[in-house]
Specification:
Elements (H helix, E strand, L loop, with lengths): L7 E3 L3 E5 L5 H8 L16 H13 L4 E5 L9 E4 L1
Antiparallel strand pairs: 1-2, 2-3, 3-4
Length: 83
Amino acid sequence: MKFVAPNKLENDKVVLKLIDPSDFDTLYQVAKDPLIWEQHPNKDRWKEEVFRSFLMLHWKAKQLILFWIKRLGNVSEAPGIMV
């Protein structure tokens, strides 16, 4: 018997979901700030084409999970991305 994990887990406090292409605009609202990437090895990831490439590469491999704490507001205000 093969285990198939769900694409989304949610309760009244948090959401864990596999990121898909429809999440790009919401995530890019946060990622487009160059200060976030200031100490990151890939300092130009704030650029739309670079961030899109990163997101699509990991989306295809199902390697990105969005962690969202509901009480902190909408996803673009309080995201966490796990790779």
